[in-house]
Amino acid sequence: xxxxxxxxxxxxxxxxxxxxxxxxxxxxxxxxxxxxxxxxxxxxxxxxxxxxxxxxxxxxxxxxxxxxxxxxxxxxxxxxxxxxxxxxxxxxxxxxxxxxxxxxxxxxxxxxxxxxxxxxxxxxxxxxxxxxxxxxxxx
Length: 139
Known about the structure:
CATH class: Alpha Beta
Oligomer: single chain
Shape: globular
C-alpha cells in the first residue's frame, strides 16, 4: 500500500475531505505535525516511511532526499514556488521524476505517483484504466 506524507499546512484542515478518496485507491496517509513547514530535521523523522508527499514549503534538502530514498518516488508541492525543494538533488536520484514542476496540487501529485493520469476523451469522460489512455500502452 503506498503511503503519503501529508504536510501541506493549508490543506491539513481539509484532510478528511480527501481521506476517503485516497483510501479507496489504497493510499495510506501520514499526517505531519507541521505549523508552517517541515524543516530538514522534521523530514528526517519520517524518512523511509512514505512513498510520496503532498507538501507545502518543506525543506527537501539533499540530506533529506537521501534519507527518504529509495522509497520516496514523488514530491507534490501544494502551492506556488519550489525553491525549498533541491531540484538538482532530485535529478541526481535514481528516480528523477521525484521532482515534477508541473505537479502543483493534490490531484496531479497523487495520480502522477500512483496511477495513470486522468485524461478526457471526446465525451468528457475521465479514463483511468491502463490501456484506455491513448498515450499509454497496456502493461
